[in-house]
Amino acid sequence: MPAEAAMAGTVAAVPPLAMTGIGKHFPGVIALDNVDLTLEAGKVHALMGENGAGKSTLIKILAGVYGKDAGTIRIAGRETTLSGPADALRQGIKVVFQEIALISEFTVAENIFLEEYPTGRTGSIDWRKISRDAKALFERIGFDVDTSARTGTLPISQQQMVEIARALAQEARIVVMDEPTSSLTPNEVALLFTVIRRLTSLGIAVIYVSHKLDEVFEIADTVTVLRDGRHISTKPIADHTNETLIQDMIGRQIDDLFPRSRGQASDKVALSVKGVGTEKLEDISFEVYSGEVLGFFGLMGAGRTELAKAIVGFDPIDSGTIAVGGKPLRPHDTRTAVSLGIGLLTEDRKGEGLMLELPVVYNLSLAALGSFARGGFIDERREREAAQSYVDRFRIRTPGLYQEIKNLSGGNQQKVLLARWLLKGLSVIVVDEPTRGIDVGAKSEIFALIDQLAADGHAIIMMTSEMPELLGLSDRIMVMGEGRITGSFSRDEATQEKILNAAIV
Amino acid sequence: MPPSSSLAARSGGHVTDTFAMLGRRQEIALVLSIFALIAFFSFTSEYFFTVRNLTNVLGQGSLVMIAGIGVAIVFISGEVDISVGSLQAAVAIPLIEVMNATGSLWLGLAAALLLGLIVGGINGYLSAYVGINSLIVTLGMLFILRGGVYLYTGKTAIPDDIYLESFFIIGNERFLGVVPWPAIIALVLLLIFMYVMSYRPFGRKVYAVGGNAEVARLAGFPVKRVKFICFVISGVMATISGILLASRLGSAVHLAGIGFEFQVVAAVVLGGVSLSGGIGSLLGMALGVLILAFMSNGLGMLDLPTEWQLVITGIIIIIAVAFDEMKRRRAG
Questions:
Q1: CATH value at residue A396
Q2: Helix (H, G, I), strand (E, B) or coil at A475
Q3: Residue burial B167-189, b: 16+ Cβ < 10 Å; e: rest
């Protein structure tokens, strides 16, 4: 202890946090292996890596949610253990998780002082002080919010600010932001960055977890990359380029994000949509051919998801006709839609796609369950074999068929959902934002899969707001705005400018 | 003022704190309903709006209100307790037996309280620590206690043999000859627990645990202990209501409190306490009790058969809760 104190005296700045040799394993998985992370006061340290790289495990150890199996943690030079969430907070570490950890029924001020309500001499809560102090905290971070509002009524961006104010209330010296921008608009991101800079100016060390390159280049001072639970690199951000960061993250170069193995689309019409109108859509007509990827682009509120749901029979339509392989589709009837061979790969995997608590095999066989029935019972062996063949073919990374699907990465979950439709024998697949929440490496695999499916003669309709995948993957592109089709381009004539011009109605 | 979490809507800084607090209280709607009920029944029956009748209603509602305090707190913590009716009957046995044997009111009360603590503790232990669904735990407890009461009493009442004056007073006489003692006791308990829920850190922890247990855990709250304590409180409150009932009945009656738990739950949800936890207030619960008590009293004076009273009560509960739910959904 005295030696340490002496050392601390000689070294100019003791790092607020130094993690060395951190190891953590779960049954069958090594989540972290000998990982180091050292922070500097007043600096933003980005933590990057693909899903499954170990970022979440590392910050959960910091939050006191997980214990570590190996390594040491030093806070301001002193070796310590984090025995639980409350203990981590006491030691000045505040983690702002992606899922906002606030009580939505409480007011903003109440949430800020959730850990410890200021009380008077009698032990009664001092509500006046809470209200006053909450306002003062928001002034410190330079953000204005109604502290008496019910937290649940605020947008996510403001709830994030409440979390940050809460970190200040607890006098945190280390603030961890876990994918903070995943549901923010560009303006809100800018505001968040202003507040983060305010935090660093107060001498707080910030860990910024993200896989968005542009954000990291904008806000971070230093970046540490993890891959497969191992520490790959720690460098000043200035020493990185887009390419070197991606390379560190996925461990190889992506030469071709959009592989193209397929040839020309056939002239067989797989889906024909004529004059479809709903509350949100107006006179939509188009055809898709077998072996083709038809991309749909549109800004927020353009009606892409509404169109996707209408043509797979999920939502009712007011006018128009839809035909799959020449057979008319009765609107608002997903059952016959699936039997005709059209289905939707939803953008909301958790809400509309997966049965999170159930194993991979049940999720995969769901749509085709009837085909495995024999005399009223499921032939589980055939079901398993069919599922295994897709797991192999799509290279779905899972410890086993009976792993609960919630434990798979987003990319692998998406592959399972795709396999579900193929097992059912669909010919037309509508994919809505196929790479949402999926990291770079897995994205290219999904792209390759979509290409492969088209090559096998499936018709793919892809709704996306991501310009690169739209341009990289589509044979033809339709642009939507305010519920109408406002532009149609072949692969060769499409450019980013033309598409955006058509999208802005 | 506590920026009460129970209630939707927000307030601007330009209005006074008190007004803001009142403005977002759905309790206002409950108070208005009570006034409307009183006005309506005063019109339909000349006996309704008399001191005698109104204080009677308070007396009748007080047992539900006392047990309701505990049940509402359990609900707010995100759990359920439906064992209170059987507990009400069960605690009368040690109370009467010990009083009969020792001649001491205090020893009798202590014995009853001990049983209440044990039952609340078991409910809380199994629900919070073992993690069994509290609806199942307290449903089981409801059967166990009722069965136990039948077994012990042989399905007859155990009379209070020594007839202590002090024991008679608490359930049957009136403060200053006007307000029944049970109503006074209910009011005092209500005020104490309203203070606890709004001004003591424990109260806010109950709201936090019920509002979002995971957040509460991350904030370092002992989630299980908080829930456990809520069940114990509920056991104690049911015990107090059971003691008052035994005083009124002058014996430990094996059929006492049958269906009582549902009167309590009805009042609690009518008062705006959410079954899903984190939402509601004791004031709302108390107003819910009063509404049901005035209804049953007023409808009784209309010479409406009790069967119809039940039907009407049921309809009103469903409408009130549906209304609440719609309002909440609109508020986002």
A1: 3.40.50.300
A2: coil
A3: beebbbeeeeeebbbbbbbbbeb
- Which residues does A468 contact at the CB level (< 8 Å), separation at least 6? A257
The CA distance from A118 to the nearest CA of chain B, in Å, is 9
Q: What's the length of chain A?
A: 505
Does residue B230 belong to the interface with chain A, where contact is any CB pair within 8 Å?
no
pLDDT band at B98 (very low <50, low <70, confident <90, very high): very high
Query: How many pairs of residues across A and B have Cβ atoms under 8 Å apart?
Result: 89
Strand partners, A478: A296, A488
Distance of CA B192 to CAs A121, A163, A426, B197, Å?
A: 18, 32, 65, 9
ipTM of the predicted assembly exceeds 0.85: no
Distance from C-alpha of A35 to C-alpha of A33, rounded to nearest angstrom? 6
Same domain, A351 and A241: no
Structure tokens given for A138: 């928001």
Q: Is residue A483 part of a domain?
A: yes
Q: What is the pLDDT of residues A260-274, one digit of tens each?
A: 888 888 889 999 999
Interface test with A, best of B4, B5, B191 (most A CBs within 10 A): B5
Q: Which two tokens stand for residue A381?
A: 């062996």
> What are A190's two structure tokens?
């800018």
pTM value? 0.74
Q: Using an 8 Å Cβ cutoff, are B46 and B173 in contact?
A: no
Grade residue B164 by pLDDT with cuts at 50, 70 and 90: confident
Give CA separation, B49 vs A9, A251, B35, B44, B168, in Å: 81, 83, 12, 10, 28
Question: How many CA within 13 A on the CB side of residue A259?
Answer: 16
Domains and CATH numbers, chain B: 48-331 (1.10.3470)
- CA torsion sign for A341, A347, A352, A356 is positive
Phi first, then psi, for residue B70 (nearest 5°) are -65, -45
